[in-house]
TrEMBL record:
Protein name, entry field: Prepilin peptidase CpaA
UniProt key word Transmembrane helix: yes
Record field: transmembrane: 6-24, 36-54, 60-82, 102-121, 141-161
Molecular functions per Gene Ontology: aspartic-type endopeptidase activity
Superkingdom, natural source: Bacteria
Domain Prepilin type IV endopeptidase peptidase: 15-116
Gene Ontology cellular component terms for the protein in this record: membrane
Tagged with keyword DNA-binding: no
InterPro entries noted in UniProt: Prepilin_IV_endopep_pep
Pfam family, one: Peptidase_A24
Keywords: Membrane, Transmembrane, Transmembrane helix
Length: 163
């Protein structure tokens, strides 16, 4: 992995709770709260100053702009929700560009696993633990489960296998 273990280690403890809440909130309400997107952005804005060299830190804001533009287009096309697009954009600066292919494979695997686990979970007793969750009855998939999981796993792997 091209992400430095140092930067992954600094981001990890701040980002993982946000990712967990995003997954939970998206399953419960089928929405990703804007406060979590802003919190993720602020984690990068503050911790990134310590975790990354300044030139790298500044250039990674371009990742946010590119992913936000793509997310807006995908949202307009009905492919993804607005919260998913905003979360992906806020997460983009945390990703090392050299890890993009790895991240896509990780996201695909995590999306498949999250989809299967969610669909199985809604037909088991797990759904009786949280019967009010909107994702059990909504035909759409709570993508925050996969997006948050992917970012948390990526940073965790970065801590262990990063440069």
């Amino acid at each position: 992995m091209d992400i430095s273990a140092f930067s992954a280690l600094l981001f990890f403890p701040f980002v993982v709770p946000i990712c967990i809440y995003v997954a939970f909130s998206d399953m419960r309400d089928m929405r990703i709260p804007n406060q979590m997107v802003v919190a993720l952005f602020f984690v990068y804005a503050v911790v990134g100053l310590v975790a990354l060299p300044f030139d790298v830190y500044a250039w990674r804001y371009l990742h946010l702009i590119v992913v936000l533009a793509a997310g807006i287009a995908l949202n307009a096309g009905g492919v993804m929700g607005a919260g998913d697009a905003k979360f992906a954009a806020a997460a983009a600066p945390l990703i090392h560009l050299g890890d993009l292919r790895f991240l896509m494979v990780l996201f695909a695997a995590n999306l498949l696993a999250a989809f299967v686990a969610h669909r199985i979970g809604k037909h088991t007793r797990l759904s009786s633990i949280a019967p009010h969750w909107k994702s059990w009855t909504n035909p759409k998939f709570p993508m925050g489960l996969a997006l948050g999981g992917t970012l948390a796993i990526y940073l965790g792997l970065g801590v262990v296998f990063g440069k």
